[in-house]
Amino acid sequence: MDTQLSLDDQFIVSPEALFERLGDEGVILDTRTDIYFGLNATGRYVWETIAGGQSLNDAALRLVDQFAIPLNTARADTLAVVEELLHRQLIRPAEPR
Amino acid sequence: MMAIYRHFGLTTASTWRLPLPEMDVDAQHVDVHVHPGAVILCGDPVWSSQIGPDCAFYTDGDRHIADWGTAKFDIAEDHVTVAANENDISLQLLLFPVWAALLSMRGRDALHGAVVERDGRGLAIFGESGHGKTTACLRLIDMGWRLVTDDLITFDDSGKALVGPPFMRLRADRATDRVAAPDGAGKFRFLPPLTESPVELTGAIILTDQVALLRPLSPVEAVQELLTAAYNVFPTTASQSVDWFKIAVRLTREIPMWGAPPRSLSSEQLYALASR
Known about the structure:
The structure holds two protein chains of two kinds. Helix content of chain A is 41%, strand content 24%. Chain A is of the alpha+beta class. The longest helix of chain B has 18 residues, at 88-105. The interface between A and B is medium-sized, with 14 and 13 residues.
């Protein structure tokens, strides 16, 4: 887990990230780099939750609800997705650290 | 002498004789003019080959200049000026990569693949060169399907696949049992039964080494594979990647996508997929 991230963190989606939902999955085109990203169902739920202005913990709770998984597992999955999205600069923290 | 042709939905007047059916159309309705003339290499260089045949591309305002050494093309939305000998190699360049650039400039970005049709149902076949697209198309044509387009796929405003040139280019070993004439560019030109109108796609097969056996592709896989099928000779517009992304998303939403290993499909499998 990235120690810089908190469960209360919220994020802003890059305006250069073009997202489309396809069934349970999602796809993103980074229009700055023309690089394409695929999101499985977990990633898609996380993206949609944080894109809606909700926190990392809200995204984890949504995974618990959708997939009936333990909260710790959901938090770990959410953090993994968020860290990847941050690394790809597809999202940024809503509050500068 | 000028003749009128129909090519990927565009009425084209050309003083070059094109290997396309001639039309009797009022010249006032022409979308694109093709004519010989001087092509000056100018503008900003956007791409040039490091290996293989020499080619270089330039952008100059609303025009693109493509230079294949002995064949040079000045491409705008509504005209193409050609500086080349009128031979089959130059015609191939005009009908496919140059036309793909022109279509892109008109908002119709293309994919690399083929479409066949039967009873109004269009089946697209995608895959890299050598992955078996032509073989699959020929098998379906032998089972009564008709050619919509080979090599370059583009769509009209309603999303239907537009009709391309009325021929397939076959290697000599594939042309032995067919009536096919050498095209002067190293292949044989085969004229299969051809559909006449744009066709709605009802399915697609992607020949790819990303799958181990024939199976439906997930949406993420399908979009990924379709993006690699972009007919990308050289960049023409700033929005080109977004346009391809939108095409890939639309097709993935609208039609079932099957993946199969290269050169793996039997006639029975093709028939079963095409008939779904």
